[in-house]
Write a structure and sequence with these properties.
With about 150 residues, this protein is an alpha/beta fold. It has one domain: Flavodoxin domain (Rossmann fold). Strands 1, 2, 3, 4, 5 and 6 form a six-stranded parallel sheet that branches. Strand 4, helix 3 and strand 5 form a beta-alpha-beta unit. It is globular. The chain binds flavin mononucleotide. The site of flavin mononucleotide (FMN) has 22 residues, from helix 1 and strand 4. Flavin mononucleotide binds next to helix 1 and strand 4.
Length: about 150
């Protein structure tokens, strides 16, 4: 059993639905999960797994609710915290999933250890992104892969 912190960046709620679905799946596998809708990096436990789940808005911008968290990451040392990023976006934008990819880079810069590549979900192809996110989690996240031999 592990503790998982899910950090959400969302404007319209889609990433929040994804976070809820991931939490449900993780809890089924006996993991403890907290969801952060107004994430403050200084308040989130650092010995746990972090899953960052964020959309992109504006032209490649962070959702407002995760802007502070992104700024905080610039000043943090998170080695050896395990993390992964699930990025929601719309492939009709040139800046497809840019916020999620920037968050991945900021986490790398802080010394945190990626458990997977960024998982980009194109909402044009996947109108119910939580379904594909849960499927991906079960197949790729080390906490889940171990449970699905
Ligand atoms: C005003 C606006 C700007 C957007 N800009 C981008 C963008 O630059 N890149 C991208 O990949 N998706 C962009 N999107 C698509 C959103 O990321 C996508 O709809 C996502 O599912 C929203 O998730 P949320 O409900 O968690 O905010 C934009 C959507 C809107 C409404």
């Amino acid at each position: 059993m592990a503790n998982v912190q899910i950090i959400v960046g969302s404007v319209l709620g889609a990433s929040e639905y994804v976070a809820d679905a991931l939490a449900e799946k993780l809890r089924e596998c006996q993991h403890e999960v907290d969801i952060h809708l107004e994430p403050d990096a200084n308040e989130i436990a650092r010995h746990d797994h972090w899953i960052i789940c964020s959309s992109t808005h504006g032209a490649g911008d962070f959702p407002d609710n995760i802007q502070r968290f992104a700024t905080q990451l610039n000043q943090l040392k998170l080695d050896p915290l395990p993390f992964c990023v699930i990025a929601l976006g719309d492939s009709s934008y040139d800046t497809f999933c840019e916020a999620g990819n920037k968050l991945h880079q900021l986490m790398l810069k802080s010394g945190a250890k990626p458990q997977t590549d960024v998982f980009e979900i194109d909402v044009l192809q996947h109108p119910i992104p939580e379904d594909v996110a849960v499927e991906w989690l079960a197949q790729h996240h080390p906490l889940m892969v171990d449970k699905n031999p």
